[in-house]
Design goal:
Mean pLDDT of chain B: 81
Keywords (chain B): Sigma factor, Transcription, Transcription regulation
CATH class of the largest domain in chain B: Mainly Alpha
CATH class of chain A: Alpha Beta
Helix content of chain A: 25-40%
CATH superfamily of chain A: Mog1/PsbP, alpha/beta/alpha sandwich
CATH superfamily of the largest domain in chain B: RNA polymerase sigma factor, region 2, helix turn helix motif
Largest sheet of chain A: 7 strands, antiparallel
CATH topology of chain A: Protein Transport Mog1p, Chain A
Oligomer: heterodimer
Helix content of chain B: over 70%
Number of helices of chain A: 5
Order of helices and strands of chain B: HHHHHHHH
Strand content of chain A: 25-35%
CATH architecture of the largest domain in chain B: Orthogonal Bundle
Distance between the termini of chain A: 59 Å
Pfam family, one (chain B): Sigma70_r2
Structural class of chain A: alpha+beta
Number of strands of chain B: 0
GO biological process, one term (chain B): DNA-templated transcription initiation
Radius of gyration of chain B: 17 Å
Protein name (chain B): Sigma-70 family RNA polymerase sigma factor
GO molecular function, one term (chain B): DNA binding
Shape of chain B: globular
CATH topology of the largest domain in chain B: Rna Polymerase Sigma Factor, Chain: A
Structural class of chain B: mainly alpha
Number of strands of chain A: 12
């Protein structure tokens, strides 16, 4: 592509910004150096992880405390008091804000809570809880879902290996991985094709967290074109994920 | 030092090599973050977090791939995360120290471009920054922003069109993508 005067001006503008940055650069390095090579516990800085950012209906899910017990009922009661029954929340999609009223729902055995965007998704509960589009997508669309499962007698590393083995068979590779602080401290892995250029190229995102000796695995499945839609909405819902102890 | 041997040294925990990597990338990283956030203090925080993440996760970097897109994917993700948290936790003040944010020398033309860029939506501004500040290809921008290539092309096109409209007579040229 031939460069125009317009391109040259923009390029010149941006290049000029990189000049005279020495003070800011030195200041930033001092902070990095202090946190990486001086601080004893740099990981202790924990961000606020429970901030609702999605237009959602609240669903409280209970999976491991036991059957309907007095304790369970007490927890339900206190949760109902803790969470507003209705509220308005926003989510930013493609730069536009969406607003929806949300409603609180509860079930019995509590282990975690998550706010679900009830206008677009429904939660199918089972051994593995699945959040799927409320209206079924057409046959031409790949699977779209977010699964939440809890595993006992295992480790995060074992579950990561299991996930990798599953998606490798579909021709996907690890595109990003590393520790995360949100929604809970744990591990994150994203799998995609090597050259994902098709609109329906699959995207798998996994979050692995440990709680009470058990491992939570959250699997998001969608397609490339839906990254700014379902991908953003799933992550926004996940921001409200909270383990109730 | 060549980048690949440098990265290998950083992977081994060599602090001097990490500083060298910082020196190579810091100016452009700060300029990128300033362009997106319009605030030098925010930019400093974001670049700080980015380099800390790079240092802690460099073991996960595949040395067969180019480092620059990997680095900028972390920077952009960190910028998005930071700005999202800032928006959520901000009460009243929104532009407290944006006025004195740029320490580089500005002329009238740069000021006009800066104001025009500020009027762009973030989804159009970020691809423009990656293209013109870093000379990334559309494919690389798609990878960094984790978007479909056609989406990137469309956002770049719309961003450029909007800039042209805002800048008006400053650009005497035919339209091109």
């Amino acid at each position: 592509m031939k460069k125009s005067r317009f391109d040259d001006k923009l390029q010149h503008y941006f290049t000029s910004q990189t000049n005279d940055m020495n003070n800011l650069k030195d200041h930033t390095w001092e902070n990095i150096q202090q946190r990486l090579f001086t601080d004893e516990e740099p990981e202790s800085k924990k961000p606020n992880r429970f901030v609702v950012g999605v237009a959602m209906l609240a669903v409280v899910v209970m999976i491991s405390i036991g059957t309907s017990t007095t304790t369970g009922q007490a927890i339900i009661g206190s949760l109902k008091e803790l969470f507003e029954p209705n509220k308005q929340v926003d989510i930013a999609i493609e730069g536009d804000k969406e607003e929806t009223e949300v409603t609180l729902e509860t079930k019995e055995e509590l282990d975690y809570i998550i706010y679900v965007d009830d206008s677009r998704y429904k939660m199918v509960k089972g051994d593995t809880d699945r959040i799927v589009p409320k209206q079924e997508l057409g046959e031409q669309y790949p699977e779209v879902s977010m699964e939440i499962s809890q595993h006992t007698n295992t480790t995060i590393e074992e579950q990561m290996k299991k996930a990798t083995n599953e998606v490798i068979n579909e021709g996907l590779a690890v595109r990003r991985e590393g520790p995360v602080n949100e929604p809970l401290p744990g591990k994150f892995v994203k799998y995609m094709e090597e050259e994902p250029n098709e609109w329906d190229s699959p995207v798998y995102k996994y979050y692995f967290f440990e709680s009470g000796g058990n491992v939570f695995v959250i699997k998001q499945e969608y397609f490339l074109e839906a990254s700014e839609g379902h991908g953003v909405r799933f992550d926004s819902m996940l921001e409200s994920f909270e383990i109730v102890k | 030092m060549n980048e690949k041997p440098l990265i290998k040294k950083v992977k081994k925990g060599n602090q001097k090599a990490f500083k060298e990597l910082y020196d190579q990338y810091a100016n452009y990283a700060l300029a990128t973050a300033i362009s997106i956030t319009k605030n030098k203090n925010d930019a400093s925080d974001i670049v700080q977090e980015t380099f800390i993440k790079v240092y802690r996760n460099i073991h996960a970097f595949d040395h067969k791939r180019p480092f620059k897109p990997w680095f900028y994917r972390i920077l952009i993700n960190e910028t998005n995360r930071y700005m999202k948290n800032k928006t959520k936790h901000q009460s009243v003040s929104t532009v407290d120290n944006t006025i004195e944010m740029f320490t580089y020398k500005r002329n009238d033309e740069n000021l006009i471009i800066e104001e025009a860029l500020n009027q762009l939506e973030e989804i159009n501004r970020t691809p423009i920054i990656l293209k013109y500040l870093h000379d990334f290809t559309e494919k690389e921008i798609a990878e960094i922003l984790e978007l479909n290539l056609n989406t990137v092309k469309s956002r770049l096109f719309k961003g450029r069109e909007k800039l042209r409209t805002i800048l008006g007579g400053m650009t005497d040229e035919k339209k091109q993508v």
